[in-house]
Sequence to fold (341 residues):
Amino acid sequence: MADLSTTYLGLRLSSPLVPSASPLAREVDNLKRMEDNRAGAVVLHSLFEEEILADRDELESTVEARAESGAEAVSYFPALAGLRQGPELYLEHVARAKKAVKIPVIASLNAAEGGAWTEYAAKIQEAGADALELNLYRVVTDPELPGQRVEEAALEVVRSVKARVRIPLAVKITPYYASLPNMARGLVRSGAQALVLFNRFMQPDLDVEEMDARGESVLSGPEAQRLPLRWTALLYGRVDAGLAASGGVSEGVDAVKMILAGADVVMLCSALLRHGVAQLKVVEKGLVDWMAGHGYDSVESMKGVLSHKKVPDPQVFERAQYMKGLMKFQPARAVVSDRDF
Ligand SMILES: Cc1cc2nc3c(=O)[nH]c(=O)nc-3n(C[C@H](O)[C@H](O)[C@H](O)COP(=O)(O)O)c2cc1C
Fold:
């Protein structure tokens, strides 16, 4: 039997397959189902910084102020008031989750900027979470705000959360930094023991009948894999932190790729929302079958085998491939000739 165990955030997990933060985690029964379907750990849905502030009657002013800087709650919670869970309920949920499952429970805090709310990191630890994932989500719309200040603010959030907890800390980031490897190292220096690649931006759409913008969450497909795959491969061996790949994983082969790129943990969200929690076992079977067919008896021995540092053609991850890819692309003949432009 293949050894699927992996080390992540200093925790020994029985499997690299971990459900990422999603509404599924709101129900303790779903967490049990995840454990029954052999998840290595569970990540709870996020407690939003704005919810903590709301509890202190600061919601309106904060959301207004943050609308400018683009905090995630503005896009996740259009009808914020109706969806609020409240920080105390979240802490109770962490405690219930811990009682319900034996696998590690990773709580999630979602924030755009630092502040007194970071004391909730300590409360989450007290509630029994085995680790904390800090999701940094900010859409900067102020043209006067330079990137360096945005990065410094993000590092400050990590430092202030880290200062409040002893449990391991993962930081879930977006890919949109000018120098992601440099930012990744900064996050690690600030206290991140693992990086989760990536947080998905909920891209809004336009409703051309209602003449308005719409912001519903859309489940991702396999095309979402490429970004975390590339950056897992590029960051493997370059940052002193664990790596969790999140995005577009729904089949065993997807998990295989992420681990070969260098992931310690492979996260699933859309696939579980689409197919149900039992999809975890489908992915696990695909992973185990691939390992058996390719002579790997442990996940540890697969890690990073096709990372940027080890892959036979590392240029594939770089600019050179972009050039080659564009130049080699052949439009289908019919597309060129049949259409009347
Ligand atoms: C409906 C929905 C809710 C989500 N809620 C959270 C959340 O509370 N916190 C968080 O960090 N990520 C959240 N995510 C992001 C996912 O955890 C995951 O990182 C992202 O969807 C990419 O993975 P996927 O392609 O497997 O869906 C959510 C995603 C979806 C689709």
